[in-house]
Amino acid sequence: MKPTRLAQYTFLFAALSLSPAFGQEDGAIQLPPDTYPGQLSESRIAGLIGRLPRTDASPDANSTLALPTWSYTVKSSRNNATYTGKIVGANPSASTSVTIPVVIIAVILNFKYSSTTSYIFNPTAADPGCLGSRTALALTQQSPLFNNYNFVMGTTSVGNTQYADAFTRGNFWTYAKGTNYHTLLGVTVAPAQTVTLTASNSSTANATVFMFSGQCGTNSGNTNLPGALGVVNISTWDPIAQGLIHSLGLNASQFPLFVFYNAVMSQGYSSNLNDCCILGYHNALGSGQTYGVAEFEGRNQTLFRGVADVAAMSHEVNEWTQDPLATNSTPAWGNVGQVAGCQGNYEVGDPLSGTLLPPVIMSNGFGYHLQELAFYSWFYGGPSLGVNGWYSDHGTFTKAASACPPGGA
User: Pick from 76, 230, 317, 361: CA 20 to 30 A from residue 274's CA?
Assistant: First the structure.
């Protein structure tokens, strides 16, 4: 079966099982008080294939990356077939430390309904309703994605390091234990970028705001709106992202990471919640430029099950390090995590979407939510190369993926 991806895109997808109420065209769609958001569920992205515009050609497995990567060849014990792929950093057997430049770009999304009605979702502004005096951007910078934390998997410390490095070390612990092997992220922050979207509640809208009763949130605009969720059509957003990479002078040796706050993407018209919600994705262009987009979710698992603060970001950043071109193929797996049916790609977040590690308390006192991730050996088969003989970084998976169909863990 064709992998669940849009061309080279791979997504973190969550569903809201709701039907919007139309007829209020000059402001956010107010959902009834007894309407409760849905839960994280399977991806429904296959219908988007080939529909997004491109500024250059899509990559393939032979594309040249300006990022440091290593290539692997593995004969899978699951089906005895041979697979190749590329992973960011140095080969785990090399005992080498590599630092990758990451550029965080806060995106201020202005959903403009009219000259007098706008809803602004701003990662650089405090949100008293959800985050108090903190901002999503500051919390992102202070997170264990970009700062050291002593990661212990089971009873084994894999390093006082960043999450992507801890995951990679645990993933290839057979080679990394006792060595100076690291893949680190060196972060800079670009100026925040304001993007104004023409918002509407019409059936062909590409930007829409919904309000969920009982949810936190203080929307910063000319209207305060607790429980607000901004939704933009990914086909509208992605060309903007590619243009911002160019206008900011970024290049293929860097990983631009766009950060939304309480705003997500749809796989079609934004007013149809059946086409919602893409919480993040990573992509690669034919030039070798990679980039990612992720929502910082200000609500703690109340709007999307298993999603809070940097959970979506931890999914996308780690999938990018393990499969930067989104072309690393695997034996078929599926019917687990966010995946319905079978797919055959090395996307470490998808099988465990919605499954979180215990909160990670950083020096700022904030408890971060990181998603659990599947190990290399879960995709390609045992014996496990991972820490403790595990097949995921919190031990949820105890053996390799089941053949698909029927799939499963």
Answer: 317
Asked, for residue 274, whether it belongs to a domain, the answer is: yes
Asked whether residue 360 is assigned to any structural domain, the reply reads yes
Query: How far is the C-alpha of 344 from the C-alpha of 218, rounded, in Å?
Result: 41
Residue at 402 is within a domain: no
In angstroms, what CA-CA distances link 307 with 250, 260, 295, 298, 356? 29, 14, 10, 9, 8
Q: How far apart are CA 272 and CA 91, in angstroms?
A: 44
Residue 144 lies in domain: 10-389
**Which among 39, 199, 43 has a CA at the least distance from the CA of 111?**
199
pLDDT digit string (tens) for 105-142?
999 999 999 998 899 999 999 998 899 999 999 999 99
Per residue in 149-160, pLDDT (tens digit) is 999 999 999 999
Give CA separation, 334 vs 53, 190, 388, 399, in Å.
28, 37, 24, 14
Task: Give the span between the Cα atoms of 34 and 171, in whole angstroms.
Answer: 43
The DSSP secondary-structure symbol of 391 reads: S
Q: Is residue 295 part of a domain?
A: yes
pTM, two decimal places: 0.90
**Long-range residue pairs from 156-165, CB within 8 A, at least 24 positions apart, any chain:** 156/387, 156/388, 158/387, 163/314, 163/317, 163/318, 163/370, 164/317, 164/318, 164/321
| Domain count of the fold of the chain | 1
In degrees rounded to 5, what are phi and psi of residue 49?
A: -55, 130
Which 8-state DSSP code applies to residue 356?
B
Position 170, amino acid:
G
Cβ atoms of 46 and 315 closer than 8 Å: no
